[in-house]
Amino acid sequence: MKDLMNEITLYLQSNQTFPVDFEAFWQWCGYSTKQKAEQMLQKNFTQGIDFNFNREVKVQKEGKRQVTRKIKTYQLTIDCAKSFAMLAQTEKGREVRLYFLECEKRLKALTRGKNKLQILKESVETLIDHEERISDLEQEREDAKTYLAAINKAPSQTLFVDTRRAFDHLIKSFALAKGIPPQEVYATFYRQFSIRYQIQLYHLAQKADKTPIAWIESRGYITQAYDLARELFVE
Length: 235
What we know:
Number of helices: 11
Protein name: AntA/AntB antirepressor domain-containing protein
Number of domains: 2
Keywords: Coiled coil
InterPro entries: AntA/B_antirep
Domain AntA/AntB antirepressor: 38-90
Coiled coil: 120-154
């Protein structure tokens, strides 16, 4: 639940009208396919108010051919993202629903039988707690920036035991440093990995019933993945 709160806090800090990347978010919510997620989005939300819609031209390899496809991209408002996540009939959707139900219970408990002065006092205390959480996140961001700055961008020469751990740490550190959810960074990496090695990573991972990074690791490409992540995310 703490990780969920941290990710929600990162979204809430954004000043953008449509800060949430749908491509990363539908996977975070646990939808099995993008098509099902799109259907849920279009059925329950309004374009231009809840989300923005664009088309991007992408060149990808299909079999032995390189083809050009028009890819739909969406950006969501924070309110849309919250509702979208709560509608998801997935484990992550259940976690989100429980989280907001718990928030509602706490709010009711705080206000039950209390006068306005008490409510105001506790609201201020809650605000202070929230500011402290943001302060902690800011410190974590600074630590992440320090970590990223210390990474040698030269390609790895040998595979070491903790390559996967180092990869995940790099991704999460970059996300913290930039103030964005890790899922968006993973999604960016997966797209770039697919382009670099001309494969359909999501399709292959889904076919093998693995997450994309688990598929990469199972195929022995974790060192290449780590090197690419350093190339993409280490300034």
